[in-house]
Design goal:
Layout (H helix, E strand, L loop, with lengths): L17 E7 L9 H9 L3 E2 L2 E8 L5 H13 L3 E7 L6 E4 L1 E3 L26 E3 L4 H10 L4 E4 L6 H15 L7 E7 L12 H17 L13
Parallel strand pairs: 1-3, 1-4, 4-9, 5-8
Antiparallel strand pairs: 2-3, 5-9, 6-7
Helix pairs in contact: 1-5, 2-4, 3-5
Bound molecules: pyroglutamic acid (PCA).
Length: 227
């Protein structure tokens, strides 16, 4: 007698929607990089039905973007927010624009110091962030956490990664409709009295991610920064 075979039921394999948040390792005189502390704390959490995946990028021109591209292809996130430390900012600085220039004041962690080089030869001079930057600023400020719009991410590794991210989103059909951008964060006050408490920065970035996922459109009711 042939035993009846159990019917095979196929469940559709729906991958959970994900958000990729990156931070950098230490560089220059910064032994603690707040961007990585924040990213680490967000890893595995859920925001607006999305699972957060955190990863560290090296503070190295070229390799940082190579790693980011590999992460993008692995996780196919619906949203990507790269974080970096700015020693001079005292608020969460939501970057508006990435420019096509590498011009390093100090060497990166691999000893490279490009001067006046394009990030991507032949690419546009700049890309705008695809994040709802003013809605994010408003939502973060509404919780009493300092946030601002920044008009320049500099010309070091952070701007390099930001530009390469925006270039990928603009040119690769695999990432059509994916939102992405960059935020600089201040040092944490636990290690630098001038900064903000880590818990507050984590909350601020969490609110920023939530707004980036849920805002239908950016708001245009508030002016830009004073600088
Ligand atoms: N900040 C640097 C690079 C790594 C980081 O966290 C920057 O602003 O370019």
């Amino acid at each position: 007698m042939v035993s009846p075979t159990r019917p095979v039921v196929h469940f559709p394999q729906t991958l959970p929607l994900s958000v990729l948040v990156t931070g950098f390792d230490s560089f220059g005189g910064n032994t603690v990089n707040a961007s990585w502390l924040i990213a680490q704390q967000l890893h595995g959490s859920r925001i607006a039905g999305h699972r957060l995946i955190s990863a560290q990028l090296p503070t190295v021109f070229s390799q940082s973007a190579t790693d980011l591209y590999a992460l993008m292809r692995e996780h196919c996130p619906a949203l990507v927010i790269c974080l970096g430390l700015s020693e001079s900012t005292r608020s969460i600085s939501i970057e508006r624009i990435a420019i096509n220039v590498d011009d390093a004041r100090i060497a990166d962690n691999a000893g490279r110091q490009p001067i006046d080089e394009p990030v991507v030869l032949g690419a546009p001079a700049a890309y705008f962030s695809l994040l709802p930057i003013k809605a994010m600023r408003a939502a973060i400020n509404a919780k009493g956490i300092p946030a601002e719009i920044s008009q320049s991410a500099g010309t070091f590794v952070c701007n390099h990664v930001f530009f390469k991210l925006m270039h990928l989103l603009a040119t690769d059909d695999q990432f059509k409709g994916v939102r992405g951008g960059f935020m600089h964060v201040p040092p944490v006050s636990e290690t630098d009295g001038q900064g903000l408490p880590l818990a507050q920065l984590v909350d601020g970035v969490r609110i920023g991610v939530h707004t980036a996922l849920t805002a239908v459109a950016d708001i245009r009711t508030e002016g830009g920064s004073l600088n």
